[in-house]
Structure formats: structure tokens, C-alpha cells
Amino acid sequence: MFKIDFHSHNYPDRLAARAMASMTASTGGLLWPVGDGTLSNHLDWLDRDGVERAVMCPIATKPGQFGPILRTALAIREGAMGERARRKIIPLASVHPLDPDLFVHLETVAASGIRGLKLHPYYQNFSLDDPSVFPMFRKIADLGLFVQCHAGLDIGYPDRRDACSPREIAVLLENVPGLTFIAAHLGGCAGFPPHATDRILDLGCYVDTSALAKDWYKDEQMRLLRSWPRDRILFGTDFPWVCCGEAVSWVRSVRAPEDLELLFHGNAERLLGL
């Protein structure tokens, strides 16, 4: 069955080792990657695990990173980083909420043909329920772009749970109707009471399956994976932190067989315009 990983990461070769070491250290040794963070290693893992394409999710941690991220995305798409990368990697763009040229840059993304943006409120130091970011999200919605966003706890920020929990996501979606929003990590359920995500279900939110492997068989994660509407759930791994092949097996073991075509690729193809 054709499979698209809707949530994955890689980094420029010159930065990958340092980035992976820093992020691993931030988890206090609780999380270790399966990949080395490079594009070539990412492609090798996709081939090994039978995942045909992966959505690459960069994060602009400062305003000045918009340009380099977009240029890398376009280089991958146009084949400048190799035919295998062009064929297998679907890059997103990213913007920073404090970018002084934010709206112009959003229009540039839309004009480029890239269909979505990756955001991470912890890395970018904002909260989804802050009214000051609502205009950014309204512009994103108006341009027909989607948002792939970290949701819930981040193991690298153990003392924070106030920026992108199901509650903050709900406030955003209530204030920006029409926004296509993918809440990563099964809607950010980890660390919150059971059924906390039900509020965002009622608001039309998508989720992806990129829970950490250590959480796969917890009751709430199993409930969400089993029951989220099949037209609003996307296969995602958060590679290089989770092995693609094992994530595929987990999803197959929980989700009804008749849902797998949509979950593994149909919903992704619709959002990506493939």
C-alpha cells in the first residue's frame, strides 16, 4: 500500500550532527533518534521501510530563517538536491510570527506552490491562543495553505504545556474558522486528561499519528488512533525520532483495514494537491 509520512524532519548535512545532539540532550536522555538527521539517511530509511514519500517539516526558529528554508524546499522540489530527494521528499515552508515581512512571505509561499507550513509554538515562542497571532492564521487560511503544527507536550520542554495543548488549539480554531490545521502527535493528547482532544475533533481538526513509540499503547493514544474520523487522520512518524516501519505496523495493528488507504495516503494527497 502506498504510504506518505506526513511528519518528518531532516537537516542540512553541515548542521545535522549538531542539531541531533542538541535535541537529544534536551530530552535528558529519554529519547534517542533512529536516524542521523541528514537528507540522505532519511531517504535510505524511507526506502528500507517501504514509505514512498515524506513531508519534510522545517521550523523557522527566527524570522531570518524564512528565506533559507524556502530556498531549500524549492531546491528539493526542483531536483537540485538529487532525483531521489525530488521524487520522495515533499517540503513544507515555515514562517516566524515575529517576521516583519510575515504577510509578504506567506504570499510568497502560496505563490511558490508549496501547500503548507510547519509551526512549533515552543521553538518559536508563541501560544496558539494569543490573539496577536490570529491575523497570521487568518492570512494562512485565506491563502488556502494548511498548518502542520506541534501539539501537546514536547519532551524537550518538560515544564511547558501552555502553548499548543488541545485547549489552545481549540481557541485558535474557534477564532479562525476555515483554517486547515493538523495537530501533530495525535492532537497533543500526551500529558493531558482523557478526552481533552474531543474539543478539537468538533472543530474539524486533523491529527497525525506521530506519537512517540513509548506512548503508542497508552489508553488515550489507542483510543484516538482507533476512533478519529478516517478522513481527518494522517500517517506521520516524526522521523528521525521514530522508525517508519514500526510506526506503519502500529497503525495497521490498531486501525480498521478499510481506513488505511485514506490514513496512509489518501488524506495526504488531498491536502497536498497530489
Overview of this protein structure:
There is one protein chain. This protein has 274 residues and is an alpha/beta fold. The protein has a single domain, classed as Metal-dependent hydrolases (TIM Barrel, Alpha-Beta Barrel), CATH 3.20.20.140. It has helices spanning 13-26, 39-49, 66-77, 83-88, 102-112, 121-124, 134-142, 166-175, 184-188, 198-201, 219-227, 244-254, 260-272, and strands at residues 4-8, 53-56, 89-91, 116-119, 146-149, 180-183, 206-208, 233-234. The strands form two sheets. A five-stranded parallel β-sheet has the order 4-5-6-7-8. The chain has a three-stranded parallel β-sheet with strand order 1-2-3. The protein starts with a strand and ends with a helix. The mean pLDDT is 96.
List keywords for this structure.
single chain; 274 residues; alpha/beta; TIM Barrel; five-stranded parallel β-sheet; 8 strands; 11% strand; globular
Give me a quick take on this structure.
By secondary structure, this protein is of the alpha/beta class. Helix content is 43%, strand content 11%.
Question: CATH top level?
Answer: Alpha Beta
The shape is globular
| Strand neighbour order, sheet with most strands | 4-5-6-7-8
Instruction: Please tally the β strands and state the result.
Output: 8
Q: Order of helices and strands, N to C?
A: EHHEHHEHEHHEHEHHEHEHH
Counted up, domains total 1
Query: What's the CATH H-level superfamily name?
Result: Metal-dependent hydrolases
CATH topology: TIM Barrel
Which structural category do the helix and sheet elements fall into? alpha/beta
Low-pLDDT parts are none
CATH architecture: Alpha-Beta Barrel
